[in-house]
Amino acid sequence: MVCHSSLYSISPLDGKYKDKLNEVRSIFSEYAFIKNKLFVEVSWIKNLLKIKKIFNIDYSKKEVFNFLNNIIENFNEEDAYEIKKIENVINHDVKAVEYFLRNKLLKNQHFFHIIEYVHFGCTSEDINNISYGLMLNKVKKNIFLIFWEKIAEFIKNLSFKYKDVSILCRTHGQPATPSTLGKEFFIFYMRMKKQICQLKKINVLAKFNGTTGNYNAHYFAHPGVNWIKISEKFVTSFGLEWNAYTAQNEPHDYIAELFHCVVRFNNILLDLNRDLWMYISFGYFKQKLIDREVGSSIMPHKINPINFENSEGNIGLANSLMIHMSEKLPISRFQRDLSDSTVLRNIGVAVGYSVLAYSSFLLGLNRITINKKNIDKDLNNSWFILAEPIHTIMKTYRIKNSYEKLKTITRGKKINRDIIHNFIKNLNLPHDVKVKLLNLTPKDYIGKSSILVKNI
């Protein structure tokens, strides 16, 4: 068996969809996680070397800093495998990184006296929470915001493109007062835009304060050093917000906040996916024909809305994971339990399913074109929707039982233009009002839907 082949992957993220998730993999792979942890460890020893109350260095700082920087810059798969070998023996991922770094320093006799300061005062969570913070900062900026803004911009452009295209609306799945296709798209754009603004405001937090968050070991060993100030400066140097008050683990409230925002955006996209799926089934949109593709194994005519279906399915998987993480991660027994560790390792999985959903949705949008003929046909077969404006005008002119009269001739009945016009002609209304009603068609009864898009 060729174990490294994607054919033997358990997860489709590393199998069927492997080539679509290279950017996610570059952030959340085991290799990336190990490198982040090593980066934090190296950054911490470099930070310590700057503290004069601890080190009295008699050699060039540039020499040791270059050596440490090269460990990160030249990090490769062989190094990652070496760390995994150590981990397999000691059964601790962060300690394995520490031992790897110590072994590197042991190769240069000038650095012997700083070796014991590798991982000084740290608990594993100090290293891990910053590593996850680095990953989440990247995914927020380089994946979520990029995809969300691309999707929102696409929807906005469709809004303006179709702002004057009348469409029969549906409430409870039944024909209802018309709108324009552009205005209906714009609703989704505005919902998405709000979540984009919310996501931008969410800061990624990290802590660096020792075993139970009190700098116990730091101050016991070096009481003259301002470790609290050093912690703040160290955390913010990574572009993260410093969390000053924690137990052993950063409480992950910001991850819950971030994922709740992602779930909201995903649900908006899910809502639009389902609407587009239905519009395609009504024939409001035509799907682009790809000659080489097959829609069904037995029905040659099929062109299925698979991109919107794939997007819907992947949103469900992403949301279920992120909802669980949002509920689980902020809860820890006493000052720390380890139940968050295995959950955190699945963040990349949730992100991966989200990315698949976004990619499928965009592919689906690029493959549909409006079928105005079918849209207009639906409107022309729905004269009964004019019961609303007729009834409203009747109320305006104090005609009694206006609702009941319209209900009698329209509810559950097949109504056409002639029936509606005969009803209007027999109403006790001013001539100009009757003319206004007689000139009204389902296609024209769109209120200010076009103007709403234009104004915004």
UniProtKB/TrEMBL annotation:
Catalytically driven reaction(s): N(6)-(1,2-dicarboxyethyl)-AMP = fumarate + AMP; (2S)-2-[5-amino-1-(5-phospho-beta-D-ribosyl)imidazole-4-carboxamido]succinate = 5-amino-1-(5-phospho-beta-D-ribosyl)imidazole-4-carboxamide + fumarate
The protein's annotated pathway: Purine metabolism; IMP biosynthesis via de novo pathway; 5-amino-1-(5-phospho-D-ribosyl)imidazole-4-carboxamide from 5-amino-1-(5-phospho-D-ribosyl)imidazole-4-carboxylate: step 2/2; Purine metabolism; AMP biosynthesis via de novo pathway; AMP from IMP: step 2/2
Entry annotated with the keyword Lyase: yes
Domain of life, per lineage: Bacteria
GO BP terms in the entry: IMP biosynthetic process
Presence of the UniProt keyword Lyase in the record: yes
Domain Adenylosuccinate lyase PurB C-terminal, residue spans: 332-446
MF terms in GO: N6-(1,2-dicarboxyethyl)AMP AMP-lyase (fumarate-forming) activity
Gene3D superfamilies: Fumarase/aspartase (C-terminal domain), Fumarase/aspartase (Central domain), Fumarase/aspartase (N-terminal domain)
Annotated SUPFAM superfamilies: L-aspartase-like (SSF48557)
Chain ranges of the Fumarate lyase N-terminal domain: 15-313
Enzyme Commission numbers on file: 4.3.2.2
PANTHER family (alphabetical): ADENYLOSUCCINATE LYASE
Protein's job: Catalyzes two reactions in de novo purine nucleotide biosynthesis. Catalyzes the breakdown of 5-aminoimidazole- (N-succinylocarboxamide) ribotide (SAICAR or 2-[5-amino-1-(5-phospho-beta-D-ribosyl)imidazole-4-carboxamido]succinate) to 5-aminoimidazole-4-carboxamide ribotide (AICAR or 5-amino-1-(5-phospho-beta-D-ribosyl)imidazole-4-carboxamide) and fumarate, and of adenylosuccinate (ADS or N(6)-(1,2-dicarboxyethyl)-AMP) to adenosine monophosphate (AMP) and fumarate.
Similarity comment text for this entry: Belongs to the lyase 1 family. Adenylosuccinate lyase subfamily.
Protein name: Adenylosuccinate lyase
Organism: Buchnera aphidicola (Anoecia corni)
